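Section 4.2 – Deliverable D4.2 (structural model, holo form)

The reporting period included a commitment to supply a predicted holo structure for the target in complex with N'-Formylkynurenine. Inputs used:
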Amino acid sequence: MSTDPHSPTPMSYADYLGLDTLLASQHPRAVPPQHDELLFIIQHQTSELWFKLVLHELRSARDLFAADELQASLKRLARVKHIQATLTQQWSVLATLTPSEYATFRTFLATSSGFQSVQYRAVEFLLGNKNPDMLRVFDAEPGARDLLAEMLREPSIYDVFLQLLGRRGFAVPPEALERDVATPYVPHDAIVEVFHEIYSDPPRYWDIYETCEELVDLEDNFQLWRFRHLKTVERIIGGAPGTGGSSGVEFLRRALDQTFFPELYTVRGQIAQGQ
Ligand code: HEM
Ligand SMILES: N[C@@H](CC(=O)c1ccccc1NC=O)C(=O)O
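Output (structure tokens):
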């Protein structure tokens, strides 16, 4: 092998990007073949690729919060926000799939469902929607289950942000700082108070204030993705139950009530009412 930097080992575009594997990974199931199944597969695969990058960036953002590197963390979050915008826009491609077209291959999906997306669940965990019950979905896939179990035990980006606020001297209650991070997050009035203080004097707390707004942007973007999923699903399968065994659109509608950063929303109501 050459060590001369001017004549590096040859490598092609396809080698570097692993295109042999990537482009050989679309396996439509319908018999006879159905034209629109490739769209469905690629829409999911591209989403999973972006989820992979979101996880990479969010983990890093969380670890940078833990190291008090706020500016570097915000840079990561800025990238995540653009990926989320792309993921949300991408629904318009799938929305070209009509109910008749989807019906030509839906039965071949059998019991598979987005419920079983490990990376999606990992993003939810990382943002703070911890739910140990979700692990059961992966009982038949030990690798996936172990990865998620590990993510469940790691602190979320919100857990780490609250710890950072504690280090900055804000009165974050010990129950929030020392909580079992594998369990669902429980909101605290004292944290609403902390945010109230921060939002009452932005110039004094600028970097923290900006971070709070970045977190709200993240949640907002996440909800837009959920909403577009719901509306796309509605136009394709209407009120039919999902292949994953849920009520379908009704189930997806309820997910819109979930919040990752509850106190950041409660404080808004207080400010708006002059409290
Ligand atoms: C024709 C297109 C689609 C339909 C009809 C559809 C339908 C559904 C339904 C009904 C559910 C609820 C679970 C169930 O009972 O199956 C669900 C969940 C889910 N879908 Fe889709 N979906 C579609 C496309 C997509 C795409 C492109 C993605 C991108 C990765 C995706 C990701 C997910 C995820 C992550 C969940 C779990 C959501 C949660 O637990 O809150 N879906 N989908
Ligand atoms: N839950 C969908 C099926 C579905 O969308 C799906 C099936 C296999 C792999 C990914 C899927 N996407 C999201 O749920 C349905 O009920 O039609």
